[in-house]
Every structure is written in C-alpha cells, then in structure tokens.
Amino acid sequence: MNLGRVAAIVGMGDAYADEDHRKDPLQLASEATYAALRDASICKSDIQALFTGRAPWADRRPQWNNIFASHLQLPVRLSSEITMHGAGVNAMLGYAAQAIATGLAEYVLCVQSDATPLFIDTVAVGAATDADPQFEYPYGPTIPALYAQIACRYMHEFGVTEEDFARVAVQHQAWGVHHPKAAKRRFGPITVETVLASPYVATPLRRWMCATWGPGGTAGAFIVTSAARAPSHRAAVYIRGFGSCTTHEYLTERMGLRQSSFRLGALPNLTTSGLAQASSDAYRMAGLTPEDVDIVELSGNFSHTVMIALEDLGFCEKGKAVELVRSGRLAPGGDLPLDTNGGWLSFGQPGISCAVDPIVEAVRQLRGEALGLQVKAPTVALTHGAGGMFACHSVTILERG
Amino acid sequence: MELEPGEDAPATNRFPVPRRTLDAEPYWHGVRERRLLFQRCQACRGAVFPPRSVCPLCEGGHPLEWADSRGRGEIYSFSTVMRPPAPVWRARAPYTLGIVHLDEDYYMFSEILGPPAAIAIGRRVRAVFPEREVLLPAFELDQP
Ligand SMILES: [Zn+2]
Fold it and tell me: What is the pLDDT of residue B14?
C-alpha cells in the first residue's frame, strides 16, 4: 500500500494568543479544534483517533493527549502523544494517515498548542532539557551554545560566513513583516548590517540569527480522513509523503555515532542531519522530487540550521545552501518561497506549537488563505518538524487537491 | 532572552553537579584522582564515550573495559558563551565550550580555557582539572 495516497487534511483550525488576549494551551487547542471541525463540516463525535505532539511547555502534564481528549469529552479508540521532541508534531500527520490506512479511524484529529511566553519565565529558560545532564550541562551551556557547535563546524567545513547567516535572517524578516502574528513584525525590514550589529548570544551566533520567542501562543488543529472521503469536504489537502529520522539525544552522543545505514554523510559529523533520510523517505512515498516542491515551511531555529535543512531536503548539494541564500530564490518574489510566515526566526516560537505553525502556514498557502504574503497558487508544500539538539526530524509533503 | 524553548533553569545560585549514571562511576572516580578515563570495547577495540554497559559500535553487545586517556587532543568545534544560562555563570562569562577530539579517537564536550581569540578548530589541547566548586575536566591550549 502506498501511504502517500490514502489520507487528506479536510479541516484546519488555528488560534493565537498574546498579552492582551491571554489563552492557555487547553483554550488554544480547543479553539483550533472547533475551527477545524467547522471547516471540515463534521461533528466532534465523528473523531475516532487523536494525536498530539509532546505536552506544551506551558502545561507540562504527562499524557497531555489524554488530558485534552478528556477536556473535550471526546472518547477515542486510538490516542497518543507523538514525541520525537518537537518533530513529533509534524509526524502526527503521518500517524493519522496510518490510522486511516489500517481502518482504525475514519476521522483523526491532530492538534498542538502552546503559549510558553505567556506562562513561563523565558528569561530563565536554559539548556537543562537538551544538554546531557552528566557530561554537558555541568559546563554551563545554553541551547544557542550547543547549536553553535554545529554552526562553527558548518562555517569551517564549507566556508560559510556570518554575512551568509545574516542573509538568512534578513530574508525571514522580509516574509515576517507581512504576517500579522509574527513576533518580529514590529521591527520592520532589516539589513545584513542590522543582523551583524546585534550582539553575540554564543559565537558565532548573533541575536538575529537565533529564533525569537513569541507570538504569545499558537495552536493548529487538523482533521484527517481518507482520500476517498476528501472530495466531499471543502479544499482538501492531501498527505502525499512523510518520513522521520532521529539520530541521537545529546550532541556528544551524535559525535559517538560512527556508523549507520541512513544517509548521514561521513560519520562522525554535525553538518548532515537525519533530515536527509527523513526527506528521502517522504519524497519516495510521494513520488516527488525537490523540483516539484513549490513552498517550504521549516522548523528553522537558527540561520545555520535553516541552511543545513535546505541541503538535507535536497534543494542543493551539501555545503551549497549559501548559493541558494545568495540567489534570492527563497525570499518574497523568489521561485522557492521559504518560511512564508517568517519562520521561527521572525514569526517566532511560542513553545512546542512552533512545529505546528509551519503546517498551518503550508495549508493556508495551499488553500490561498495566507494571513501574510500569499504565494501565487502553490500546489506542493514541504513541511519540516525538528526537535532536540538537531536530533529528530520529520517531513510531511502536502498537495492541494 | 532569545532562546529555544527549554526547561526552566534551576533558580539556584549554585553550579549544577553532574547527574551521575552507574555506567560512569569509574569516570568520576578517575576525575577525583585527576585522571581522564574512557572505555574500549573488548571485541572491536573501539573507543567509547560517554560510558555505557555494552559496546554500541559493533554488534553482539560486547563488554567494555576502562582505560586512561593521555588527555591530549584537538578542538573539533567551539562556541564562546556571551549570554550565560543562569546567574551563577555570569561571573565566569564569557567562557568557551567546545568539542574535543581526543587522540584515542573519542569526543568530549568540555570547557576550553584560554582567550577566546586564540581558540580555533584544530588547535591542540590538553586536559586539566581546575580547582572549582564542581570538579570537572577542562582543556587548555597547548603553547603554539
Ligand atoms: Zn565493539
């Protein structure tokens, strides 16, 4: 069975919160879910399976999927948190397709929300989760300092410069200024000089090269059903391919990984990610190639991970993303629109739902309903979820019906 | 502060102590004696770090044995922390954290001591054990 032909998103709902309109993760997820149900023209009782990603930072109770199902008074026969760090948020669409394919459910609800900046002291956020508590965390790393180890190698191996990292931030901001919910919209357009004048957080990463917090809260909910039922709903978006790959938990463990049958480059390294394998699996399932992709919505937490992701997604050779960035193809008006809501660098990350925001943006773009800049009639969107220390990756390829 | 979502940093004014695993007890015993230990597989002879109970490099779940590292290696990657994670680190900042490729062919995350401008990929380093609140191995630059 080709899982790239069995399922479609037939309802989508999104929700947003900020300091003036405070909502917690349960409220955001409820609002998005009912918007998705209305969009699909189905009832809550039509849902037979529920997937979420990992528990929101702003409501960290374990088994949040069950808490939310209970909150909705929604008995289901299949439910789980899909937790490959944040990548599981993207992977839940693939799990929904599998539930449809096996006949376990006719309608599946996939939902994720978070509102970290509204409920957590983000100034005090550190690397306690993503650093090895024995061999890394005692040295005092921040998350940027851990990701900077990858950036330092990437610059060294491929001759990439801080100016190149700055260009990535400038292009994201060029999209973000048009999106009403983008956290950095208020700063307006920026230049390479703006980025290079911002302070180092952890060398070689400056503030504008790092994902920002906010908006205060977001949620995305998707109703997935069979391709056979899809045409009876409005504006179906087909799940054409998906793939995931996780390679490690801590950075030091990645350096200890010396062999794998996956496409991880010459091991050990920090500059080829599991996304290379995940995307290859997704393209094969979809019967598509990178040339068929019209828009790309990444989980790009830093300038350099955006560049590495573009390579591992097959849009250019390893080490050549710098040419793609310099070409302008990724910016507004280009032929390979990237992170059209501003991405994590400009739209921002509200918590775990940062991995659902790219899917919301992809579905809106495919339907011609973008909140920010609308790309002209895209047909195929590639969405990416990432999590942990560039450790877990998931790709879902969507196609307009 | 513009960081990726993570856990709340411990609201404490003490440096964090390593969360020791049973597999790593000999490593920490070595650190107390100012020795840097690592593991080798009894079957494939590969160097293994961080410590574990079976070899992950070859098939068959072979046991590992402990060996002394010479504590010499070269810098694989590094970053100088300008915005420390918690108040306790501020007096020490900026400080440089990096990945060191030990001559026995394994990799460690550690602190690299020395002026940030002198730190570069490929620079030779040696293990040291600075007298601090929490005893951890670090690396200092060899003289050029
Ligand atoms: Zn072995």
Answer: 85
Contacts of A400 (CB under 8 A, 6+ apart): A237, A238, A366, A367, A378, A379, A380
How confident is the model over A177-186, as pLDDT tens digits?
999 999 999 9
B75 strand-pairing partners: B100
Q: What's the B53 CA to ligand 1 centre distance in angstroms?
A: 11
Whether A252 sits inside 8 A of B97 (CB atoms) is no
In order of A98, A180, A231, A291, B69, the CA distances from A238 in angstroms are 14, 27, 10, 18, 55
Whether B85 and A207 lie within 8 Å, measured CB to CB:
no
Helix or strand run (H / E) with residue A51: strand A49-52
Q: Which residues of A touch B6 (CB under 8 A)?
A: 125-130, 143
Among A147, A199, A301, whose Cβ lies nearest the Cβ of B82? A199
- Judged on CB neighbours under 10 Å (0-12, 13-18, 19+), B99 is buried
Which chain B residues contact residue A139 at CB under 8 A? 97, 109-111, 136
As for the ipTM of the complex, it is 0.95
Q: Which residues of A touch B17 (CB under 8 A)?
A: 138
8 A C-beta contact, residue A189 and residue A177:
yes
- A193's CB contacts (< 8 A; 6+ apart) are none
Is A258 close to B82, i.e. CB distance below 8 A?
A: no
Q: Look up the CATH number of domain B71-144.
A: 2.40.50
Where are the domains positioned within chain B? 21-68, 71-144
Closest residue of chain B to A271, computed from CA coordinates: B77
Domains, chain A, ordered by start: 7-119+216-224 (3.40.47.10)
DSSP E strands, A185-322: 200-202, 205-206, 217-226, 237-246, 295-297
Residue B94 contacts residue B82 (beta carbons within 8 Å): yes
For residues A112 and A90, the answer to whether their CB atoms sit within 8 Å is no
Q: Residue A2: its pLDDT value, please?
A: 87
3-state secondary structure of A150: helix
Distance CA(A52)–CA(A109), nearest Å, equals 8
Contact B84 A252 (CB under 8 A): no
pTM: 0.96
In residues, how long is chain A? 401
**Distance between CA B86 and CA B13 in Å, rounded?**
8
B25-44 pLDDT tens trace: 999 999 999 999 999 999 99
B 59-118 residues with CB < 8 A to A = 76-86, 89, 92, 95, 97-99, 106-111, 116
What are the percentages of helix, strand and coil residues in chain A, rounded to 5? Answer: 40, 20, 40
Which residue(s) pair with B77 in the sheet? Answer: B99
B49 contacts in A (CB within 8 Å)?
252, 256
Amino acid identity of residue A219, one-letter, is A
For A217, phi then psi, to 5°, come to -155, 150
Is B50 in Cβ contact with A134 (below 8 Å)? yes
